[in-house]
Design brief:
The chain has 421 residues and is an alpha+beta fold. It has two domains: 201 residues, Metalloenzyme, LuxS/M16 peptidase-like (Cytochrome Bc1 Complex, Chain A, domain 1); 183 residues, Metalloenzyme, LuxS/M16 peptidase-like (Cytochrome Bc1 Complex, Chain A, domain 1). It is 43% helix and 18% strand. Strand 9 and strand 10 form a beta hairpin. Helix 1 crosses helix 7 and helix 9 packs across helix 12.
């Protein structure tokens, strides 16, 4: 399977990945997310994502849905700190329709005032929904602490205060600055003819403008923080939610591969160290896991767990103990081999899905400006050594660098929490 990269006459880059499948997936990846917003624009990238589904000059909102679902397909979108993605997954014979629908949404969204007002209310309810989820609150507060003083500390959805005064004109202005050929990657994966794909795309973008617009540059800096800190929130819940984390290098640093291996060693799957030590051996948590997220300028390595009030100190100390072990003792060759087989096997199985390929190639182009071959990704993971892990852990997992985010039951607001002054 070989990817093809073409540039349309209108300036848009297209990544085509023909492969054996019964379907085709088309995605538009825009390099715009919450870290590109001014404080008064917080949540605007996510708001635009919602509004692109609300109709165009040629289609009503209901027509967009029926055009995809009526053919057995599905479509969705997501917004993150650095990207907004719109994608359609349909039986392969409907590629022209998929391209026409997505390009129409991208180029010709009508942003009707009535829909704008309704959707603003919907997003505010979405914000309230996540505010009722203790695990989401813990992670959001953790990220805000780790990246304090930078746009990466802000919520992707924005806040009620930032959304309330927002107007349609604000969305139009933001979209005009970010939805550009230089800032958008189109990815097509599945069963299709590249020549026919390019013809459909050229037709859809024949009248688009903005070819010479400069690519948006992220100029913000992330302030250096000398040591970790703690944040505590209360909710009407029965269990304590803990999120612990460390600031680590971003996606442009090759140590991201080491971080991925460390993540798997610590908290991915039932054979991981945290799952075995915290849940299986000690019974301190039903759900415990780790994750690493790499942004362009920095990353966050996080551990999350739901804990009983009476066992928080033991669980906290156990987690710190596992982090310390990584700094003083090399991972055995046998454990590292198992971990690499888990990661690469999981990656290969996921990569069988058309949509997984779509997200991989879209992220690769936006992040690195090139299509990263799957073999390069796998080989980089396989090259990680026990010494790489030891060095990485020693540099980034010192206890004084640890940030903690707690969400505790309202009735336990005076609870003594480890590491909180």
């Amino acid at each position: 399977m070989k990817s093809l990269v073409e540039t349309l006459a209108s300036g848009y880059k297209v990544v085509m990945v023909p492969c054996e499948a019964e379907s085709v997936a088309v995605g538009f990846f825009v390099g715009a997310g919450s870290c590109d917003e001014k404080p008064e624009e917080a949540g605007i990238s996510h708001f635009i994502e919602h509004m692109l589904f609300k109709g165009t000059k040629r289609r009503r909102a209901a027509d967009i849905v029926r055009s995809v679902e009526g053919r057995g397909g599905n479509f969705n979108a997501f917004t993150s700190e650095e990207v907004t993605c719109y994608y359609v997954h349909m039986p392969s014979e409907y590629l022209p329709e998929a391209i026409d629908i997505l390009s129409d949404m991208y180029l010709n969204a009508s942003l009707p005032k009535a829909e704008f007002d309704r959707e603003k209310s919907v997003i505010i309810e979405e914000i309230k929904m996540y505010d009722d989820d203790p695990s989401a609150v813990a992670m959001e507060n953790l990220q805000a602490a780790v990246f304090k003083g930078s746009p990466l500390a802000t919520s992707v959805a924005g806040t009620i205060n930032s959304l309330t005064p927002m107007k349609v004109a604000n969305l139009v202005d933001y979209k005009s600055r970010h939805y550009l050929p230089s800032n958008t990657i189109i990815v097509v994966v599945g069963a299709f003819s590249p020549d026919k794909c390019i013809k459909s795309l050229e037709k859809s973008f024949a009248n688009s403008s903005g070819v010479n617009a400069a690519k948006h540059q992220r100029t913000f800096k992330i302030p250096r923080i000398k040591k970790g800190s703690s944040v505590v929130a209360t909710r009407d819940i029965k269990q304590v939610q803990l999120a612990m984390g460390y600031r680590v290098p971003g996606s442009m640093d090759n140590r991201k591969y080491v971080a991925t291996v460390v993540d798997a060693v610590l908290g991915r799957g039932m054979s991981s160290r945290l799952f075995q030590e915290v849940r299986e051996k000690r019974g301190l948590s039903y759900d415990i896991s780790s994750r690493v997220q790499h942004f362009n300028k920095a990353g966050i390595f996080a551990i999350s767990a739901g804990l009983d009030v009476s066992r928080i100190k033991m669980a906290y100390d156990t987690i710190l103990s596992e982090m310390a072990k990584l700094r003083i003792k090399r991972v055995s060759n046998a454990e590292l081999k198992r971990t690499k087989e888990f990661i690469t096997g999981n990656f290969r199985l996921a990569h069988e899905r058309v949509t997984a390929k779509l997200f991989y190639y879209g992220a690769s182009m936006l992040m690195f400006g090139r299509v990263m071959p799957v073999k390069e990704q796998v080989d980089s993971l396989l090259a990680v050594t026990p010494d790489d892990i030891l060095q990485y852990a020693d540099e980034f997992f010192a206890e004084e660098n640890c940030f903690t985010s707690w969400v505790v039951p309202s009735c336990e607001k005076n609870l003594k929490l480890p590491g909180v002054q």
